[in-house]
Design brief:
Layout lengths: L7 E6 L6 E10 L2 E8 L2 E9 L4 E7 L10 H5 L6 E4 L13 E3 L2 E4 L6 E6 L4 E4 L6 E4 L2 E4 L2 E2 L8 E4 L14 E11 L2 E10 L11 E5 L13 E5 L5 E7 L2 E4 L2 E2 L9 H4 L4 E6 L3 E7 L12 H11 L3 E5 L7 E3 L2 E2 L14 E7 L2
Parallel strand pairs: 13-14
Antiparallel strand pairs: 1-2, 2-3, 3-4, 4-23, 5-27, 6-25, 6-27, 7-8, 7-19, 9-10, 9-19, 11-12, 11-18, 14-17, 15-16, 15-17, 16-18, 20-21, 20-24, 22-23, 22-24, 25-26
Length: 354
C-alpha cells in the first residue's frame, strides 16, 4: 500500500478563554490515521481505521500463555505491526479477566458479568457478552464441553490447549484424553486419541489438546486411535478480547447513577478504550495521573468524549499504568508509571493485510 504522511494542526481559543484545544494528525497507512488531542487538561491518543478495513485488527496474547505478562513493545516485537494498544484487565496471576480468542483459537471463556469486543474475519466489530459452548462428537455420541482452559469442577468436561500451560493441573478424579489435531475447518477440529488415562494433571504441548472429564461421562467408551470432532462454535468470530464496562451503546453513555459510587468509575485516570461506528473503528488511549501534563478521565467523561469522537458503541479496556499505545516501533503515549511500560496480558494489534 502507498504510504503518505501529513500533519494537521489546529488551535481553538474560545472567547478569550485560556483553555486551548489542539489536534495533530498523521496518516500511518491508507485508511489509518493517528491523532493526538490536547484539551481540558488531557492528552488523548486516537488511532482511527476506516471501514471496511484496509488493515487487519487482531488480538494477541502475551507469551502465547494464559498467565504470561509482558510489556506491549515486547508482545508485538516479532509481529511487526503498524500499531497496538493494551487489552483486557487481568488477574494477579496474569490471566485475562474476560473471554479471549486469538486468530480463531479459543484461549479463555468469559463470564456473564464481563463484556467483550468480537471481530469477524473482515474485522467487523461487535460488543456484547460472549457465550462459550462446545461439544465432542465421537461415534454418533455428543458430549458437551463446559469450559476451556480453566479449573475442571465436578461433573464437568473442560478442554485444554497449550495456552493453559504445561499441564492441566487436574486431580485424578476423572479421565483425561490426549488428542492430536489432524485438521481445522471453521469451528471444527478433527483429531485422534493418542492417550487415555485417569491419573490427572496431563501434559499439554503445542501439538496436543486435552479433554478432561469428571462424572458419569468419564465412563464413556473412548478408544485409543479413534477419530473425534471438537466443535467450538465461534459464529464467524475470528478474534475476541474482554473489557468492562460497556461505555457507549447506540450513541448513548451506559454509565448510570448506580455506577457512580465506585472510585474506579469516578476517579480521573489513564484510560484505554475501543469504539466504532459504521465508518470507523477507534483505538483510544488517554494519558492520566500526571499533573501539568494530563490528568486523565473518569468513565463518564470518557464515555461522553467517545460519543463526541463519533463512537456509536465503545468498550472500556484496562487503564491506569496499563494504558499504552505503540506505533511503528515506539510507545507514543506517556504511561502513568513514570513513563515506563507496565507488564500486560493482552493487546489489540493493527497490521498490514497480507
Amino acid at each position: 500500500m502507498k504510504r503518505i504522511r501529513i500533519q494537521v494542526f489546529a488551535v481553538l481559543v474560545l472567547m478569550g478563554c485560556s483553555s486551548e484545544k489542539s489536534r495533530t494528525e498523521s496518516v500511518l497507512l491508507e485508511g489509518v490515521t493517528y491523532s493526538v488531542y490536547k484539551e481540558d487538561g488531557n492528552i488523548i491518543h486516537v488511532i482511527a481505521m476506516a471501514r471496511p478495513l484496509t488493515v487487519t485488527l487482531n488480538v494477541i496474547k502475551a507469551g502465547r500463555s494464559l498467565k504470561a505478562i509482558q510489556p506491549l513493545s515486547e508482545i508485538v516485537r516479532s509481529k511487526n505491526p503498524i500499531a497496538a494498544i493494551n487489552g483486557d484487565f487481568f488477574l494477579e496471576d496474569g490471566i485475562p479477566s474476560g473471554a479471549l480468542m486469538e486468530s480463531g483459537t479459543w484461549i479463555k471463556e468469559g463470564s456473564e458479568s464481563w463484556s467483550a469486543i468480537a471481530l469477524d474475519e473482515k474485522g467487523n466489530p461487535e460488543i456484547g457478552a460472549p457465550q462459550f459452548s462446545g461439544e465432542i462428537l465421537v461415534r454418533n455420541k455428543k458430549v458437551s464441553i463446559d469450559g476451556i482452559n480453566r479449573t475442571r469442577r465436578e461433573n464437568e468436561t473442560v478442554l485444554y490447549n497449550s495456552f493453559f500451560g504445561n499441564s492441566t493441573g487436574t486431580n485424578s478424579y476423572g479421565m483425561e484424553i490426549t488428542l492430536k489435531p489432524k485438521s481445522f475447518h471453521k469451528d471444527t477440529m478433527l483429531a485422534y486419541i493418542v492417550d487415555i488415562d485417569s491419573t490427572g494433571n496431563h501434559a499439554v504441548s503445542d501439538s496436543t489438546w486435552i479433554i478432561s472429564i469428571h462424572g458419569q461421562l468419564s465412563n464413556s467408551n473412548f478408544r485409543l486411535g479413534e477419530n473425534l470432532q471438537i466443535i467450538l462454535p465461534a459464529r464467524g468470530i475470528k478474534n475476541m478480547i474482554g473489557g468492562y464496562p460497556v461505555l457507549v451503546k447506540n450513541k448513548k453513555s451506559l454509565i448510570d447513577a448506580s455506577m457512580l459510587t465506585k472510585e474506579f468509575v469516578t476517579n480521573k485516570n489513564a484510560r484505554t478504550a475501543v469504539g466504532y461506528n459504521s465508518q470507523t473503528i477507534f483505538l483510544v488511549c488517554v494519558d492520566g495521573r500526571q499533573p501539568n501534563y494530563s490528568s486523565g478521565m473518569s468513565l463518564p467523561e470518557l464515555a461522553d468524549w467517545l460519543i463526541v469522537l463519533g463512537c456509536e458503541s465503545a468498550l472500556n479496556l484496562d487503564g491506569g499504568g496499563s494504558t499504552t499505545m505503540w506505533i511503528k516501533g515506539k510507545i507514543v503515549n506517556r504511561p502513568s508509571d513514570g513513563g515506563l511500560e507496565r507488564l500486560i496480558s493482552t493487546a489489540l494489534m493493527v497490521s498490514e493485510k497480507i
